[in-house]
Amino acid sequence: MDNKPEKVVQFYVLCNRLKEIIRSGWKVWHVQKERLESVAEHVYGTQMLAIAMWSEYGYDIDLMKAIMMLAVHELEEVAIGDIIPFEMSLDEKKARGQAAVVEMLSGLQDGKKVQELFVEHYEQRTPEAKFAKWCDKLEADLQMKIYDEEGRVDMVEQEGNTMLMNAEVQEIAKGKQSAAEIWLEYNRQANGYDENFLAVSRYAEQHQITN
């Protein structure tokens, strides 16, 4: 009996859960909005950003491969949740995430190929993986900038913000007026952006990006 339709639906339903998982960072930073961004919406945002960056800066990469990486890079969160920076080590997150993704993809005929993209993104050894990671990080910064411009983040009301308690973040936060400034600077320092991603990051910091 052909069970391909069943596998397709099962995988879709599993991934559909990402629509219900709210990005943890917005909760940690006490973003005051009734409807916060979901992980699925973040994934969409990273893909649209990838298309724009590729279009404007002419990256010599396999764009479809990068888009595929971004499509699956948060699959682990169906099982382990959206884990914020400093909540656990990268090695532990990687191990738990890969184990979860292997199980999730085991039902697909070409699940191994999708799993390889997930691992490639984690290992950051290819131009596509680096490009995808930069899109992932910058997308989050741009979303925070939008929340800031909407007046959704009060820097005075950050009691219990575990990210802001981190010594590295505290150092970056000195002299910064907004959460978006902190996020943009942190990811510029932490992720080794190329000159194009740096330019977009700095533009977003220096300009109003919403109408």
- Which descriptor suits the 3D outline? globular
Ranges with pLDDT <50 over ≥5 residues?
none
Q: End-to-end distance, in Å?
A: 54 Å
Radius of gyration: 18 Å
Strand content: under 5%
Helix content: 55-70%
**Main β-sheet description:** none
Strand tally: 0
Series of H and E elements: HHHHHHHHHHH
Structural class: mainly alpha
Mean pLDDT metric: 92
Q: Notable features of this structure?
A:
single chain; 211 residues; mainly alpha; 11 helices; globular
Short description:
The chain has helices at 4-16, 24-28, 39-57, 63-72, 77-80, 90-105, 111-123, 127-149, 167-173, 179-190, 195-206. By secondary structure, it is mainly α.
Could you explain the architecture of this structure?
This protein is mainly alpha-helical. It is built from eleven helices and no strands. The protein has helices at residues 4-16, 24-28, 39-57, 63-72, 77-80, 90-105, 111-123, 127-149, 167-173, 179-190, 195-206. The longest helix has 23 residues, at 127-149. It starts with a helix and ends in a 5-residue tail after the last helix. The mean pLDDT is 92.
Topology summary:
Elements: H1 4-16, H2 24-28, H3 39-57, H4 63-72, H5 77-80, H6 90-105, H7 111-123, H8 127-149, H9 167-173, H10 179-190, H11 195-206
